Amino acid sequence: MRWDKYAGLDVIPLWVADTDFRAPECVIEALQRRVEHGVFGYTMPPRELRDLIVARMQRLYGWTVDQPWIVFLPGVVSALYMAANRLTRPDEHILSPHPVYYHLFRAAQSAPRAWTDVPLVLRGGRWVWDEVRLASAVRPASKLLLLCNPQNPGGTVSTRAELERLAAFALGHDLIVCSDEIHCDLLLDPGKPHVPIASLSPEVSRRTVTLMSPSKSFNIAGAGVAFAIIEDAALREAFSFDLKKSVHDASLFGYEAAVAAYRDGEGWLSAQLGYLRGNRDLVEALVEKLPGVSMAHLEATFLAWIDCSGLGLPDPQAQFLAHGLALSPGADFGAPQFVRLNFGTQRALLREALLRLEAAVGAAAR
Description:
Helix content is 39%, strand content 17%. It has helices at 25-37, 47-61, 76-86, 102-110, 131-137, 160-172, 202-205, 233-240, 252-264, 266-289, 316-322, 347-365, and strands at 12-13, 70-73, 93-98, 114-123, 126-129, 142-148, 176-180, 208-212, 226-230, 294-295, 303-307, 325-326, 328-329, 338-342.
């Protein structure tokens, strides 16, 4: 999709959030075996995949998850819409961070539910919740708190202390938490671990819907598989009630790809992270020296969130596109003076893209 949109044009497309990397060989081989099987009918989630997820949560986070807590889904995006529809009543209110991946607030908008965008602020070079504004935004009708961790588009990995304060806020106001943690494997700074908010305590777990997927980590978004981890049985029933009414099952090929990735793909994932760190460093070094643009240090994801407000342009994305570089417009995330650059690509192509970025900024500054 990212490349086809600009097919035939002299445009480097670094917008939608998948990478240009070939999936792990273990995934390719698993899919080849499944194709050779030749029967692609209705399929139950593999027991092995549940086992792998449970073991992964324990190994990475010290989080004990029971198999029945896992609800399989075709993707995290559909799960966000399900959360807004199923976990709140029409007269209830949702709290969402801002700026954020647009499907969080669009889920509230489309339900429709009343919602409030709570600003994220740049503090210590990291995008974090404005906790004063959060406290002032809550209402008696507030029911659902949406979280994106690691944060898209800002790239912040929330610390345990930050999550503990957010969890205490949710407990104090009797809020359900829906946490989009799809980028949890894409950690770029050693020593900054991902902490699922539900792993903090049983009390927090019982009011949390955690959304995860191997799709970003292993570049298999087209395979169609994700999962929610929901401890509370009533919350799980509300979330997954009549699942097929709104979304289809996860894909047969998604199940196969997920099993292979989680079982055998860690070496590939580690190598990818090393490559992405190098790409991130290239982007940050260039942006730091250019006039009129800036970005916070990126702790996770492969998505650079670039502030172009110093350029004084009404549409920064259009300026870059005119110089042969397609980026995601910040307006999609609620911040029109920003652009999001996907650096999950081959380094030679990224270097060419950065030359175009530099030319576009230089032209705007003249």
